[in-house]
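Fold in tokens:
===
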Amino acid sequence: MREQYIETSRGRIWTGVFGEEKQGIPLLVIHGGPGFMSLTDVVSDLGAERPVYFYDQLGSGNSDKAADPNDYSVDGFVEELDEVRNRLGLVEVVLMGFSWGCALAVSYVLQKKPSGIIGLILSGPLLSTPLWDKDQRDNIRTMPQEVVDAIEHGEKNQDFSDAYQAAMMAYYGKYVCRLDPWPPSLMEAFGKLNMDVYRTMWGPSEFTISGKLRKFDVSPRLGELTMPVLLTCGDFDEAGVKTLKDFQMSMTHASLAVVPHATHLHHLEQPEIYKAVVGAFLRECLETHR
């Protein structure tokens, strides 16, 4: 991987690229969170045929932090994505989002209406906070009663200390990543999660939503996406399978892959399946583009 920093209007943004010399249509990977960091595992393998670019959003990973947490906003991250893409010279590109990164990718396309977006890959996508919240409530009901009680107590009393944290990790072990132990890169990413960004934009956990994204919803506008779109999720994903099916059906050129025996981080849990699905989609994008 070749790394560099891009000087943007929001600060220094870290980027890295695999397969820079390859001739295929490049991928630009947009990480989740908000406040997480780029996970290059598995996705970097796609650099065997095309350049695969990663970048850490403002406040995340190796990039600068905002002087004021209020600078973390959907509009700000959209402008940042536009600037990063332009600075990298990605005239034609496939955008690959993970979780919150999907919200950012779709917001960018809808707000900026940019040319040259050959396709979208949306993995475990957040596209509607109300629907995400409904799916989390359904998932919580499958957990042991003591976990449910701890979550309900924490949310009612705004007490996100030990019992809530233990319940949160039990939930994550079922719906975020079932690998045991978690890969070192994932442990590092969670250890470096910038809670200023996460709380400002989202809240104290994946299922307790109190930040700026609490009313986020681009689902009514998905029909405006005319490029090929691939939706992926695990069969035990935080992003519900039925919700994603509804998203797929509202778009003109979308497909859905449900990865078996996998959760939100299904690309880490089932890497060969994930790469095969994405590879087939990228070949489809190339044929459509021609």
